[in-house]
């Protein structure tokens, strides 16, 4: 006949506590943390994430602006320093003359490069720059950026 097995039934209330030893922290069930603590942690995480994203957005926006201002300031100082001995000899001391000279310099470079002779000089200069080991990478990257923001 069929073998009868002994049934070991455990009441439901005791079944939950099988293998639980209140004395052993490794076997004891995790204690629920207070709802206030988990909410606070979640809020701090969300706030920290939001602040971090906004800070990085600010960096991404301000970095190109700062670089542009730095390069523009350097260029104006360079042109002003280049022409300042000429201004001193002529006895001219006008505030902002370096800025105006810088704008005129950029304009005349644009006019020159637009001509066939200027384009030829520019292409020779570009050929020389593209042969320089480190400079060619910088020039190529800046030329791509200029092409991307160029009005026409």
Automatic annotation (TrEMBL):
Sorted alphabetically, which InterPro entries does this protein's record hold?
COV1-like
Q: Which organism is it from?
A: Gossypium davidsonii (Davidson's cotton)
Which Pfam family, an example, fits this chain?
A: DUF502
Q: Where is the region Disordered?
A: 1-39
Annotated Gene Ontology cellular components are: Golgi apparatus
Annotated transmembrane regions:
55-76, 96-129
Q: What is this protein called?
A: Protein LIKE COV 2
Keywords tagged on the record: Membrane, Transmembrane, Transmembrane helix
């Amino acid at each position: 006949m069929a073998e009868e097995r002994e049934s070991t039934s455990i009441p439901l209330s005791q079944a939950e506590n099988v293998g639980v030893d209140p004395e052993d922290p490794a076997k004891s069930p995790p204690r629920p943390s207070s709802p206030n603590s988990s909410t606070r942690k979640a809020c701090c995480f969300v706030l920290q994430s939001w602040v971090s994203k906004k800070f990085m957005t600010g960096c991404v926006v301000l970095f190109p602006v700062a670089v542009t201002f730095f390069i523009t300031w350097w260029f104006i100082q360079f042109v002003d320093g280049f022409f300042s001995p000429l201004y001193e000899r002529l006895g001219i001391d006008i505030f902002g003359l370096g800025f105006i000279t810088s704008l005129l310099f950029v304009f005349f470079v644009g006019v020159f490069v637009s001509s066939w002779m200027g384009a030829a000089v520019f292409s020779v200069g570009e050929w020389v720059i593209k042969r320089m080991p480190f400079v060619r990478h910088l020039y190529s990257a800046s030329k791509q950026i200029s092409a991307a923001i160029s009005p026409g």
